[in-house]
Design goal:
about 90 residues, two-stranded parallel ribbon, mainly alpha
């Protein structure tokens, strides 16, 4: 929960950038994004997020997972990056 508090604090500090609806969606208890970032923030050595989202730091109407990860120093990658890290071949 301490890590989730850090995610909330970061998101709220960006209130001048993100629109209120974007923050409400990101922090909504029914949405997983903020919880995923917090989970990985709590154990950054062993955890990372896999997402199809792409960083859009200038976007104001949606908080993107990669942007939260960059701000909070949480590792993330796309699906192909995950397969490469796991050394999966097809």
């Amino acid at each position: 929960m301490a890590a989730y508090g850090q995610v909330i604090a970061w998101a709220m500090s960006r209130g001048g950038h993100y629109l209120p609806n974007a923050l409400n969606e990101f922090l909504d208890a029914d949405e997983a994004d903020a919880f995923l970032v917090a989970y990985c923030l709590a154990d950054p050595v062993d955890n990372f997020i896999v997402t199809h989202e792409v960083s859009e730091p200038n976007r104001q109407n949606k908080v993107k997972i990669p942007d939260a990860c960059v701000a909070l120093n949480v590792s993330y990658m796309n699906t192909i990056g995950m397969f490469r890290q796991l050394r999966e071949t097809f």
